[in-house]
Structure formats: structure tokens, C-alpha cells
Design goal:
single chain; 313 residues; alpha/beta; Rossmann fold; 7-stranded parallel beta sheet; 5-stranded parallel beta sheet; 12 strands; 31% helix; binds NADP nicotinamide-adenine-dinucleotide phosphate; binds glyoxylic acid
């Protein structure tokens, strides 16, 4: 079996090394421009058009991420980047869900326990005890109840705060009040104190974190964007922070990454920034998952994580 691999990231050599070791029965090679030799599977992150174009006999393309927006954007710009009738398979959790839950719980506790405000008071050497937020009305809303959002909602619920979740299709999660579809969106948002975004980026979810959504949350809500930068209308967040409708934000993803050094988010006293590190793609777990799926496909079995190209996730 022949596998081609491509990633533009600085750790590509480590991925190649680990793939070769994890799949001793396969011939794994790093794809180079001009390589049109046969292949059965492709394992990729942001592949160039030339790598996959016309490779309609591949048995699957594995995307080295949970989100497929980057590869779908390449396909939209350069149609044919994705070979025809070849399943595009995304990573399913592969160790990301616990990392997301840690981040989300940190963000919720940060606001619930007013740590941002204590940090500002510390700057002024001000010994002042703040009134705690009442837990019963400290409602956390999770946008997206997929593999990551569901785990996040379940873990945040263990903090003893009310948790809501929102998805396209109706979901049932113990300890979480769920809402589905556009018709229930406003009811989901109403009074939410911490809004955590874990939606995939699609045409339907573009700019979903905007002024009209912020206005429906509780006054002084907190926004946590863990999904994609293009979900957030940046100027709407800045205006909502100015007005006090939004009290603070923790942002892991940005419209342009890396975030420009002159971007106003960097110095904003109520915005905490991390560099798209909420849930790292773990090599061992991801390679193990892909290896297992290749084995299943070779045995004619079905696999999870096949992207529905019409819905975009
Ligand atoms: P997933 O399993 O595909 O789940 C997506 C969820 O979003 C599903 O519940 C889906 O609803 C819901 N959804 C999609 N479109 C919707 C819409 N228009 N309205 C309402 N709900 C909608 O995805 P995942 O594995 O949890 O990952 C989510 C995203 O996290 C990824 O796409 C990626 O962008 C981001 N991510 C970020 C990092 C990071 O480090 N910051 C790391 C990994 C992933 P249904 O259940 O009804 O289908
Ligand atoms: C990372 O952002 C991913 O989509 O896996």
C-alpha cells in the first residue's frame, strides 16, 4: 500500500518519521512537486492543488485536523484539489476533546471567579474583594455539540453551572439543556453568561459571533472562541466590550493567523489570547486513528469522520 503525506508545518519531518514507523507494511512518502506516482491514501494538511488533483483512485484523503475549512477553501479557490468521489476524512477527537475541555473550564472559572478583574486590581496593588457571580444564573452556552462541543458541555456542567448546547439537529446530553436549529437559536442565546464557540466554519456559520448575537446574551457576558477566527466579527466584539454588553473574551483563533502585532486585541485589557493552541493535533493519537481507519477500509468496513461536502463539515 502506498501513502503520500504533505504538511507545510515545521514538524512535517516528525509526522513523516512517526507515520513510517507506525505503518511498517505501507510505503509512506512525503509528496514533492512533480510526484505523480501511484498512491492509495493521502494524509494531508493544507495540500497544494497539484498533490491530489486527478488522483481519483485514492481510497481516502485524511485531513490532519478536525476542521476541514482550510482544505475546502483550497478546493473552492482551485476546484479539483479534492479528487472526485474520494472520501475526505477528518480527525475525530484524537485527544483534542480533553484539551478543549481544559481550556473551556479554565475560561469559565476565569470569569466565574473573576480572575481577570483580580489581575487588573493587582496591577493597581488594590486589595479589594469582589462579589462572586451567582452560580445558579451563570449559564454557559456551547455552540456546536459535535465531538468537541459535547465533551466540553459535559465537563463544564461538572462545575455546577447551568449548561446549554446548540446544534443543527436535536441532541440529548445528560445535564445539558439542548437547542437545535435556527428556530431555537434565540432561546439558546437568551441570558447566556459565557458563550463558547465550537462550531465548524461553514458558509452557514460565517460571522456567527456578531453584534446581534452579543445583544441577546446576558449583559456583561463572556465570549470564548475556540473554533475559527472567521466566526467572529472582530469590530462587533470591540464595540460590545466598549459598551459593556460583553465583559471579556478568551480567543484562541483569529481571522488572520498569526495575529498581526498591531492588532488591537493584543493590548485589550479584557481579551485573553492564545495562539490557536486550545487543542493541539496529537501525533501519536492521530496516526493511530488514521492507521485504524485505513485498516478498516482495507477490510471493506465503514469508518467515521467522513466529511459531508455539501454541509461543509
Ligand atoms: P463536529 O463533530 O463536526 O461537530 C460540529 C457541531 O456543530 C455539530 O454538533 C453540528 O450540528 C454543529 N453545527 C454545524 N453547523 C451548524 C449550524 N449551522 N448550526 C448549528 N449547529 C451547527 O466538529 P468537532 O470535531 O466538534 O470540531 C468543531 C470545530 O472545532 C472544528 O470544525 C474546528 O474548527 C474547531 N477546532 C479548533 C481547534 C483549536 O485548537 N482551536 C482544534 C480542533 C478543532 P449537528 O450535530 O446537528 O451536525
Ligand atoms: C484545529 O484547529 C483543527 O481543526 O484540528
Amino acid at each position: 500500500m502506498k501513502i503520500i503525506f504533505y504538511s507545510p508545518t515545521s514538524d512535517a519531518e516528525l509526522w513523516l518519521h512517526d507515520l513510517v514507523h507506525a505503518m511498517p507494511d505501507a510505503e509512506v512518502r512525503e509528496w514533492q512537486p512533480g510526484d505523480h506516482a501511484a498512491a492509495d491514501y493521502a494524509i494531508v494538511w493544507r495540500p497544494p492543488h497539484e498533490m491530489l488533483a486527478g488522483r481519483d483512485t485514492l481510497r481516502a484523503v485524511f485531513n490532519l485536523g478536525a476542521g476541514v475549512d482550510a482544505i475546502l477553501a483550497i478546493e473552492a479557490r482551485e476546484p479539483g484539489t479534492l479528487p472526485r468521489n474520494v472520501p475526505l476524512v477528518r480527525l475525530e477527537d484524537s485527544g483534542m476533546a480533553p484539551q478543549m475541555a481544559e481550556y473551556a473550564m479554565h475560561a469559565v472559572l476565569r470569569y466565574l471567579r473573576r480572575f481577570d478583574e483580580y489581575a487588573l486590581l493587582q496591577n493597581e496593588r488594590n486589595w479589594e474583594m469582589l462579589e462572586p457571580h451567582p452560580r445558579e444564573t451563570f449559564t454557559v452556552g456551547v455552540l456546536g455539540l459535535g465531538l468537541l462541543g459535547t465533551h466540553v458541555a459535559e465537563r463544564v456542567a461538572t462545575l455546577g453551572v447551568p449548561v446549554r448546547g446548540y446544534s443543527r439537529n436535536a441532541r440529548s446530553i445528560e445535564g445539558v439543556t439542548t437547542f437545535a436549529g435556527q428556530a431555537q437559536f434565540d432561546a439558546f442565546l437568551d441570558g447566556v453568561k459565557v458563550l463558547i464557540n465550537l462550531l465548524p466554519y461553514t458558509p452557514d456559520t460565517h460571522d456567527v459571533l456578531n453584534a446581534s448575537v452579543f445583544a441577546k446574551l446576558a449583559h456583561g457576558a463572556y465570549v470564548v472562541n475556540l473554533a475559527r477566527g472567521r466566526h467572529l466579527v472582530e469590530e462587533d466584539l470591540l464595540a460590545a466590550l466598549d459598551s459593556g454588553q460583553i465583559a471579556g473574551a478568551m480567543l484562541d483563533v483569529f481571522r488572520e493567523e498569526p495575529l498581526d502585532r498591531e492588532h488591537p486585541f493584543w493590548r485589550h485589557p479584557r481579551i485573553a489570547i492564545t495562539p490557536h493552541s486550545a487543542a493541539l493535533t496529537l501525533r501519536a493519537e492521530s496516526i493511530e486513528q488514521i492507521g485504524r481507519k485505513i485498516h478498516a477500509l482495507e477490510n471493506g468496513e465503514t469508518i467515521g469522520g467522513i466529511v459531508d461536502l455539501t454541509r461543509g463539515y
